[in-house]
Specification:
By secondary structure, the protein is an alpha+beta fold. The chain is built from 1 helix and 2 strands.
Length: about 70
């Protein structure tokens, strides 16, 4: 089973906000994080996690029909 993808938003006592994507691979997290950042306003800093450089893999099964 694939882990559930999450966006985690943390707000500290001083009102600083951090946004983190969990269980995303490649650039797919970027669009979700961008929506949150746009809603919050100014972005002070951001950094890519190692998962950003990974490629998303898909599994394709070859189905055979008939005789064999």
């Amino acid at each position: 089973m694939t882990p559930q993808k999450k966006i985690v938003i943390e707000i500290d006592e001083d009102g600083n906000v951090s946004v983190d994507g969990k269980n995303f691979v490649g650039t797919e997290c970027g669009k979700f994080i961008k929506e949150v950042q746009d809603a919050l306003g100014q972005t002070v800093s951001s950094k890519d996690k190692p998962e950003y450089r990974q490629r998303q893999t898909t599994t394709r099964r070859n189905l055979q029909r008939g005789g064999r």
